Amino acid sequence: MRHANPTRGKPFGFKRDRLPNPADYYRDQGLKLIGGGEWKNALCPFHNDSKPSLRVRLDSGSFRCMVCGEHGGDVLSFHIKRHGLRFIDAAKALGAWEVTR
Has residue 76 been placed in a domain? Predict the structure, then answer.
């Protein structure tokens, strides 16, 4: 059975350059980023964390928890995992999905 595609025939797509700045995004998500260098530390929101175990790169938005193993390559991946969204829904929520008529 085929499902209707509401974007069929319309130009659409993911616009990576429209993703929010990683430093601003992670702060807006309530993470207190600490430390120097390329990687910052924060309490991991994916498990009950009492010592900062989440590592975040502010240039790319990459993240990795050294305890629970949750990881991803950018703020979109973080948003998908943290909020349980599909790719397109997360991209739309972050302003990085465009549908034109």
Answer: yes
For residue 8, the tally of other CB atoms under 10 A from its CB is 7
Instruction: Return the H-helix or E-strand segment holding 25.
Output: helix 22-28
pLDDT at 28 over 90: yes
35/22 Cα distance (integer angstroms): 15
- Domains of the chain: total: 1
- The answer as to whether 13 is a domain residue is no
Alpha-carbon span 50 to 36, nearest angstrom: 20
pLDDT value of position 3: 52
Identify the H or E element spanning 41: strand 39-42
11 inside domain = no
Q: What is the pLDDT of residues 60-70, one digit of tens each?
A: 999 999 999 99
Please give the structure tokens belonging to residue 78: 């973080």
For strand 63-65 and strand 54-57, is the pairing parallel, antiparallel, or unpaired?
antiparallel
pLDDT score recorded for residue 97: 95
The answer to whether 87 and 75 are in contact (CB under 8 A) is: no
